[in-house]
């Protein structure tokens, strides 16, 4: 990290702080040459490999627009979508890889969307998991029902 004041090629980290959302690190640095202090914000890059093979940066907005369609007419707010997109980003970053495919994003969306709204979850899952028969819906609904009735302390879990 070059000093912005004197272009010295080294700097010393004097403070590190993780941002509130845990996705970036802000560092206070000091130049050993001129004593100048400056901050840097470091965010690990995260890229998405689309089905077409195109690689583009991860976008929370794209997650939100994908989920928004499934939430039409449901009591889900833009704020809910923003929280969901952040949860998804944190989940995929936790895998530690800098490139993920759209499939993994779809998987990361299913859990939090199910918590948010089960109808939207079924709609999203039907597209994402390519349901093509009534049985696919029936088994997804049966799974939701089974989980509702499961006691909190199921020994099998
Ligand atoms: Zn300097």
From TrEMBL:
A zinc finger (unnamed) spans 3-34. GO terms for biological process: negative regulation of DNA-templated transcription. Residues 7-20 have a biased composition (Basic and acidic residues). Its cofactor is Zn(2+). The keyword Repressor applies. InterPro entries: ATP-cone_dom (IPR005144), NrdR-like_N (IPR055173), RNR_NrdR-like (IPR003796). Residues 1-20 are annotated as: Disordered. It holds the Pfam family ATP-cone. One of its GO terms (molecular function) is ATP binding. Binds 1 zinc ion. Residues 46-136 form the ATP-cone domain. Keywords: ATP-binding, DNA-binding, Metal-binding, Nucleotide-binding, Repressor, Transcription, Transcription regulation, Zinc, Zinc-finger. Negatively regulates transcription of bacterial ribonucleotide reductase nrd genes and operons by binding to NrdR-boxes. Belongs to the NrdR family. PANTHER family: TRANSCRIPTIONAL REPRESSOR NRDR. This is Transcriptional repressor NrdR. It comes from Microbacterium schleiferi. The lineage of its organism: Bacteria, Bacillati, Actinomycetota, Actinomycetes, Micrococcales. The gene is nrdR.
């Amino acid at each position: 990290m070059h000093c912005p004041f004197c272009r010295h090629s080294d700097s010393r980290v004097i403070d590190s702080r993780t941002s509130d959302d845990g996705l970036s690190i802000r560092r206070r640095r000091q130049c050993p040459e001129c004593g100048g202090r400056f901050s840097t914000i470091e965010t690990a890059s995260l890229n998405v490999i689309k089905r077409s093979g195109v690689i583009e940066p991860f976008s929370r907005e794209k997650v939100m627009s994908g989920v928004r369609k499934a939430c039409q007419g449901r009591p889900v707010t833009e704020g809910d979508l923003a929280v969901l997109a952040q949860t998804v980003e944190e989940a995929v970053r936790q895998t530690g890889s800098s490139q993920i495919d759209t499939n993994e994003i779809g998987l990361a969306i299913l859990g939090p969307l199910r918590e948010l709204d089960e109808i939207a979850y079924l709609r999203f899952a039907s597209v994402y998991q390519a349901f093509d028969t009534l049985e696919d819906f029936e088994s997804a609904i049966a799974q939701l029902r089974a989980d509702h009735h499961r006691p909190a302390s199921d020994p099998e879990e």
